[in-house]
Design brief:
Blueprint (H helix, E strand, L loop, with lengths): L1 E6 L4 E6 L2 E7 L2 E2 L8 E10 L2 E3 L2 E3 L5 E5 L5 E4 L9 E3 L3 E3 L1 H10 L5 E5 L1
Parallel strand pairs: 1-12, 4-10, 9-11
Antiparallel strand pairs: 1-2, 2-3, 5-8, 5-12, 6-7, 8-9
Amino acid sequence: MYSILISLSKRRLYLYNNSKIVKSYPIGVGKIATQTPVGNYRIISKVPYPYTYPGGPLTVFGTYWLGLSRPHYGIHGTNRPSSIGKMVSKGCIRMHNRNVEELARYVKIGTMVSIRW
C-alpha cells in the first residue's frame, strides 16, 4: 500500500510502499504568509491537465493535480520549474511535471499523505 510523506524542511516528497521509500522527489512549498498545512490528509481527486474549462485551458497546475482532503490544497505540477525547492506557493505542493505524472501512476484515491516540518 502506497503512502506519501512530505517534508517541508527538506522540501522533499517521499513515496512509500508499506514502510519502504520507493521514490523521492524535490518539491516547492508554501510561502511564509501562505504556508503548506501540516497534518494528515488523503488524496481525494486525480485530474490530468491541461484541463479545459469554459474560457480556455487551465494550466496553473502544470500537467497533473492530486487534490487533498484539505479543501483547496493539493500536489500538482508546475509550469515554473525554477520554483521547485523554494517556498513559493499559496500552500500547495509543487512538483516537476514529469514527477507528478509518475507519482499519479502509483497513488490512488484514498492514499494517505502526511505533511510534516
